[in-house]
């Protein structure tokens, strides 16, 4: 198991990033991977902190996490000869840093500026291409979170993170099903950790609706979910049929909806297939402000039907509920209607 060595979650603490890194690498050079807007807003604070810690740095700005960006990042960061690669920003920056550090056999540190999914602490990378999928990389050496930055991000990003956490309910159910049907290894500890992260949202969603989201709780749950995947050695505790549905939508309608939003909607429909209480998932997602229907994120009924029919084919080797109940256009539409996502 490769687990984060150091995790810091604080308020208004971005100016302490240098001290955080110095505990991990004892000086040297840091390659900073970010987007242009994050660098504009936080760049001077981060630079001052690194300089005070006597850490050299070079910024690398990318706007996408496709294969071209990964190739460019590897070429550019190789020239730095870095002691650590730091991903600062949303999922794209963290993914590029993670994948580049893995390819160069260097440690990486995650500094998320939004809590929209569990990738901030997981060893998996989302890669855009002809076949959307996740690729195994390395776990972060450290995770550094400034809650004030997370709170300043658009509210829908935090709601998306809640959707990604609720998805663990389906992922664990699919993992158990695969264990029963194929004998696949099932890790009770990592599954329990993933379920605990999901239950943090399910149990507190009504309170969030009344008083607002508890940002630290959500961030801690996302980190715990990422650690669950580290322990399992696969994405199984956090990725099942609902993620395949999300990946299918990425292919059919790229750019529509956030990852966690689509996983949340996918969780509703897959819960119906599993004969679970899909209404409780719908209610929890509504309470945290996450979308619960295709129309909420600009998808048509036809998009949903096509994604449901396509989903399992994206990872035929992964056993999910979709292996048990193959869908055609007619049954997929009926399922989507009965679950209320269209």
Structure, described:
By secondary structure, the protein is of the alpha/beta class. The protein contains 15 helices and eight strands. It has helices spanning 17-25, 36-52, 67-78, 91-104, 147-152, 155-166, 168-182, 188-211, 215-232, 241-252, 259-273, 278-287, 301-314, 321-324, 329-339, and strands spanning 6-10, 28-34, 55-61, 84-89, 108-112, 124-127, 133-136, 142-146. The protein has a six-stranded parallel β-sheet, sandwiched between helices. The chain has a two-stranded antiparallel ribbon with strand order 6-7. Strand 6 and strand 7 (133-136) form a beta hairpin. Helix 3 (67-78) crosses helix 4 (91-104), helix 10 packs across helix 13 (301-314) and helix 11 (259-273) crosses helix 15 (329-339). The model has no long low-confidence stretch (mean pLDDT 94).
């Amino acid at each position: 198991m490769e687990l984060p060595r150091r995790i810091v979650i604080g308020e208004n603490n971005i100016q302490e990033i240098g001290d955080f890194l110095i505990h991990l690498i004892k000086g040297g050079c840091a390659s900073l991977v970010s987007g242009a807007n994050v660098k504009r807003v936080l760049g001077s604070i981060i630079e001052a902190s690194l300089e005070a810690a006597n850490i050299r740095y070079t910024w690398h700005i990318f706007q996408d996490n496709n294969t071209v960006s990964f190739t460019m990042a590897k070429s550019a960061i190789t020239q730095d000869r870095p002691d650590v690669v730091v991903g600062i920003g949303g999922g794209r920056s963290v993914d590029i840093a993670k994948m580049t550090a893995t390819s160069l056999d260097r440690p990486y540190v995650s500094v998320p500026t939004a809590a929209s999914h569990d990738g901030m602490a997981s060893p998996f990378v989302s890669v855009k291409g002809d076949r959307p999928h996740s690729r195994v990389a390395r776990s972060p050496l450290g995770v550094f979170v400034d809650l004030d930055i997370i709170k300043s991000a658009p509210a829908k990003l935090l709601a998306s993170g809640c959707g990604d956490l609720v998805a663990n309910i389906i992922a664990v159910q699919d993992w158990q099903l695969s264990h029963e049907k194929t004998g696949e290894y099932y890790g009770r500890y990592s599954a329990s950790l993933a379920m605990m992260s999901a239950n943090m949202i399910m149990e507190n969603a009504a309170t969030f609706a009344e008083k607002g989201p508890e940002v630290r709780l959500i961030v801690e749950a996302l980190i715990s979910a990422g650690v669950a995947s580290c322990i399992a050695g696969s994405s199984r505790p956090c990725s099942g049929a609902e993620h395949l549905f999300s990946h299918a939508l990425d292919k059919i309608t790229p750019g529509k909806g956030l990852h966690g939003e689509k996983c949340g909607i996918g969780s509703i429909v897959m819960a119906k297939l599993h004969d679970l209480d899909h209404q409780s998932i719908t209610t929890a997602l509504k309470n945290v402000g996450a979308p619960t229907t295709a129309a909420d994120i600009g998808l048509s009924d036809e998009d949903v039907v096509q994604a449901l029919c396509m989903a399992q084919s994206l990872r035929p080797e992964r056993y999910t509920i979709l292996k048990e109940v193959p869908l055609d256009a007619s049954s997929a539409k009926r399922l989507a209607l009965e679950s209320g996502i269209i």
